[in-house]
Amino acid sequence: MTVVASKKKFDELVSNGKKAYLTNNFEEAVSCLSEACTLGGNLFGDLSPESFEALLYYGQSLTEVFRLQQEPVNLGGKMEGEPAEAEQKEAEKPTEPAAENETPVGEEKRAEEMEVPADAEKSTEAAENEETGAEASDEDEEMQEDSEEAPSDALLAFETLEVCRKICQNQLESAPRDEKWLSNKADVMLALCESAIVDGRPDQAREAIAECIETLKSMPNATLRRLSEAHMYCARACMAADAFSDAAIAYKNAHDTLWEYRRDMETIGGSLKERNELTKLMRSIRERMEDAERSEESFAEAKEELAAKFVLPASTGGETNDITSMIRKSVKRPAEEQAVDNVKKAKPGEAEEAEAKKVDA
């Protein structure tokens, strides 16, 4: 294939992949864009700006495929793992009467004559089953090895989007204020945030969206609506990390940014339909903000209750520093008891002398 034909093929694959992504046909998008990325790497290089669009949509498509993989599978109205309807009916069939299982005498005799061939047939069948089981186990081992070697869609999406990020950085090194590549970088960081949220990495998602917001604020022509969207992503990342207080702040930032955008629309005479849509969106954001605030209060109460379980109860009586009452004091015994003990402890001769002294006294 010539270079011209390869470039034409590359453009077709990117176009088809984008179209599939925008119509939620993510499997087809991954197929087209994967081939486009490979072809673009051969044509332009791994970190070429020409491959940026294909890589970005490829990473986003992989994220969506991974998201779908995490959802429970619904097979014909029943969840995966439930018994099939035919199997359930078979299990519910009543057992046949015992009379139907009785065998006539003639048939019993023929069955006895066939016992040896039947045993041979069973042994042959068992050997075939062993061979089939061995082949199946080999196939399972090969599939397991392949699954261990192949990276997950989430990891592949993250690595692909990191390549996009590197391309943006390379372009911004020579032109730091380039509006196009600043916008591209913001898109990449937003996609990285979404990928991290789906993969259960909220801390990385928060880092990515913070860089996205910083990039948008550095752009002179960044729209307020786009900045509000980034704040919404930030709130989602915070909610995923159980940082409800930070999420409430992010929702407030999104709301205030949209309010400013709506005010500008009124100034310039924007469409009434869009302004009404913004009003509904702002109301929804306020509800989410209030929900995050309630979650923070519940979370704080739960932490206090948990901490209270580990606090030792305070002493209710007496001086804690005075330990003299805890020391066991010796008890004085009567003189007679002490004398008897002395006699018991004394040697035989000494005992007689002690008794004589007692009589003299």
From TrEMBL:
Residues 127-151 have a biased composition (Acidic residues). GO terms for cellular component: nucleoplasm. Residues 275-309 form a coiled coil. The lineage of its organism: Eukaryota, Metazoa, Ecdysozoa, Nematoda, Chromadorea. It comes from the Eukaryota. Keywords: Coiled coil, Repeat, TPR repeat. The keyword Coiled coil applies. This is Tetratricopeptide SHNi-TPR domain-containing protein. One of its GO terms (biological process) is CENP-A containing chromatin assembly. Residues 75-151, 329-361 are annotated as: Disordered. GO terms for molecular function: histone binding. It comes from Steinernema hermaphroditum. Residues 86-95, 106-125, 342-361 have a biased composition (Basic and acidic residues).
